[in-house]
Amino acid sequence: MSQTPFAASGTGPNYRPVGGHAVLVEFGATIDKRIHDRVVKLDAALKAAPFQGFVEAVPAYASILVCFDPLVADHRTTEAAIAERLGAEVPATIGAMREVEVCYDPDLAPDLAAVAEASGLSPEDVISAHLSGDYSVFLYGFAPGYAYLAGVPEAIQQPRKPAPIRGIAAGSVLIAGPQCLVSTLTMPTGWWIIGRSPTKIFDAASDDRPFLFDVGDAVRFRRISRAEFDARCPA
């Protein structure tokens, strides 16, 4: 497999074999919209013109896993097919705009005050900054419906906590570094909990569309009152 250096402006990616059935195509090592745009473009090109033996592609922040049928293709032919599609012209796709409601009341946002103190802001300033973020869905991972959003404003970015906290409620609005997500299950997290949302992000009962978001969608948060939250999430 070839190994080419990462580049900021569009040269070849790195190719890494994964088991006997996939190639990991790496465009960089940071959360960067320009890098992710290349991931999305290759994903679209593979969907528009799948090569013989293509099974699926799984996009991430700065890479995409291309899976193939090892009875039909191998790492070498898959890399060649990917290289052919890197420069392909594919129709521009514009993701949908999705709205997520969020309540920032203190008992639903146990880390809001800590984020404010660490950022040198008031809690209301943190809320305003969070609402102003330019969010887009970069990938799914970790747990069902966990859509990782990039776009948290730099003013409120915080590193992950030293240790995770157990039993964090589903619907929690979490931030860590430039990332944001809305949890879908009660699980531990080391991210900062700054609100809670009644918006249904993951519908396990749906066979047609279990996830609210698609990779590439834009997301905006809309503040709601506690009364609105309670009406949507009765005890």
UniProtKB/TrEMBL annotation:
Recorded superkingdom: Bacteria
GO terms assigned for molecular function: hydrolase activity
InterPro entries xrefs: CT_C_D, Cyclophilin-like_dom_sf, PxpB
SMART domains reported in the protein's UniProt record: AHS1
UniProt entry tagged with the keyword RNA-binding: no
Keyword Nucleotide-binding: yes
Pfam families, sorted: CT_C_D
Ranges of residues in domain Carboxyltransferase: 13-213
Stated name of the protein: Allophanate hydrolase subunit 1
Species for this entry: Rhizobium indigoferae
